[in-house]
């Protein structure tokens, strides 16, 4: 599995959010972005003495969606190993998509708010916060998962539980590994009795039973099919079935 290239997660987020290479607000004016489930918040110093409060919110995945995501992730042993090792490989995004949701939100999912007096959304302070948030995803991609509602430790615990419950598919070593199955006999009779049925013998204390008792229960049946009694019609078939 290829490792994530530097800047991968920030690039994915900025592209999905519709932010290109426009003017960059000074990064040192943005505080560390605090990420919680569904919300990212920061303070941005602008022209006023008091920093502006900035929030960017996204929908969190439902418990049902997260259960599906965890099952999809746990099915890929290599991805699980990387997640438990503390990294988030790029393949996670595609596995999340199999559940019908997108890990990296697009612009339509972002609810943005800033305390500045500007009317435009996003304003310069929001754009600066989004860029700072993107950089934080490169530093710790688990923040992106947390933003969608699942913290690192809970996700790791769920993956450990799911992988432990998954049945092993390891093929046992030994002489049986290369065993070629025998071909099936050419007839049903040979399948049940073997290739040499004449060698079969009944034990002395268990002689073969009369093959007719079942059909005799129909003796005297009043059911008539095509002017023939049902018992007479079934007798040849029953004899064929019990003859071997």
From TrEMBL:
The UniProt record lists the keyword Acyltransferase: no
Domain of life, source organism: Bacteria
Keywords associated with the record: Metal-binding, Zinc, Zinc-finger
Ranges where the SWIM-type domain occurs: 99-134
GO molecular function: zinc ion binding
Keyword Isomerase part of the UniProt annotation: no
PANTHER family: SLR1429 PROTEIN (PTHR38133:SF1)
Protein name listed in UniProt: SWIM-type domain-containing protein
